[in-house]
């Protein structure tokens, strides 16, 4: 291989999911260990990998997606290496060890198909906008890959009394055991969020983390829900 190009070759496999650079996900595929991935995210693969868009398990969950939450998913199965990406977004790999994470569906890239998942309403926000906010909760023992528009910050809420405030349009994921409530702010509306009118923030407290991207989701999550 040409020496300058050799630096871009994939590293030896050391885990089920790994980053290849900051913007691509490498998945070690094995028969019987299927993957659910965002439709259209496959950029390359080696070996024998098959794809099934909108599999039965996804169709069952899709009944809860009337609110608009949820990503179109495909089931990936087979043996080899699978490479996924989402328009150059940063990729964040998480290994769940019997715990859970709540994810904005637009930031969900892929996860092990055996994990437990579903669409859930975020409590405490309905009074701010219609039926409030819906997120995808994933739990169990396995791997999850998220995307972030730019390098994210992971805030450890630390279990203290101080709350962590986040623009919902910049929110990627959080620990579902955190307490969540909405906050309406008039004074901060010119500083937080891109839209006009009142500014909304989500306040998190308790023991857990919040993942925030340096770019706002253009779907304007607290206005569209209804």
Automatic annotation (TrEMBL):
Cited InterPro entries: AIM24, AIM24_sf, Trp_RNA-bd_attenuator-like_dom
One Pfam short name: AIM24
Domain of life: Bacteria
Record's protein name: AIM24 family protein
